[in-house]
Input
Amino acid sequence: MRIKLGVIFGGESVEHEISVISAVQAMEHLNQEKFDIIPIYISKDRLWYTGKMLMDIDVYKDFNDLKRYAKEVTLTKKADRYVLLSTSGLFRKEVTDVDVIFPIVHGNNVEDGSIQGYLDSIGIPYVGSNVLGSALGQDKVVMKQLFNSANLPVVDYVWFYENEYSENKDSILKEVKKIGYPVVVKPATLGSSVGITFVKNNKEIETAIDEALKYDVKIIIEKAVENLTEVNCSVVGDYRYQEASAIEEVLSDNELLTYADKYIGSGNGKLKGSVKGSKGMASASRIIPAKIDKKLSDDVVKYSKEAFKLLNLSGVCRIDFLIDKENKKVYINEPNTIPGSLAFYLWTPVGKSYEKLLDEVINIAIKNYKNKHKKTYSFNTNILSNYNGLKGSKGKLKR
Output
């Protein structure tokens, strides 16, 4: 019997379209002899839809015209089953059972632990990192604080909230100046290079901060690495084991890797599931393996595995690094807990096909779900049955 695999994607996020591309790619590479694939698309207005039509990338060119052909649904637990229920009509009818969820979502409101929290609350097994790992992987400030605590190398940085910038702009700009230009200004909880600006001098800094504040209330400003090489390494596993992929060197004509570099690219190659030639992160110009020496490669692999375990990640992630070529120094930039295109292009060079990668992360999810349910999370006793302090009573609860 095939596993009914619900693939969740989309959502209210600036990375919505990238999620659609990543999910369609993955669905086309899943083994359909093992899995009954159930697409679950979250529109930008947070409504959930299902239907096999959602596996076709062309649907999303004008979804508003075509959504009437999909079923609006909600995911819930019913007895010992997990089901998608239709939300239209007087009565909610079952659309299908779901055994396992595979979130392929990017950015705020979805990748940051939001989806994972909902899935945990109903108890369904799902692929990838849990709430904590997902949240840590989304916040560039908190992750750096953790990296510092574990003596993992990060660039110098300052961070602040929107209200602090309004109230203490001069002092914050002085802190930035202490770091030394050039710097990179980023929204703290976004991905895909959205809202990021490379700033060369003090004249440009306020405009860059204003741009970042369009997307987030929390801002991080990092010392830019000069003589820069950007490399990425993927990790698959969980808290018990971590396996590292090939290392890629990502090429760009800009001071930092941009949204266009990542997702639009310059290649004319056609990837199944692409949008007008876009291959998700597979569009980026890259060299695999990266042209770095063995010591730097060993450091990247070592730090990738350590960061993966430290942040309590699971499934497949991609960890991005900054290398100072002159000083041969590696810095961790950030993890991507659900990377664009699921970083499959970093695994094929080491002999792990996309289909095998997908099988592996689903197996990890099922194994961890079974292991989790050997632990105690609730008691059968009801201490409230003997409590008389309700309905205005002044009785006290005895512990």
The longest helix spans residues 354-372. DSSP finds eleven helices and 16 strands in the chain. The mean pLDDT is 89.
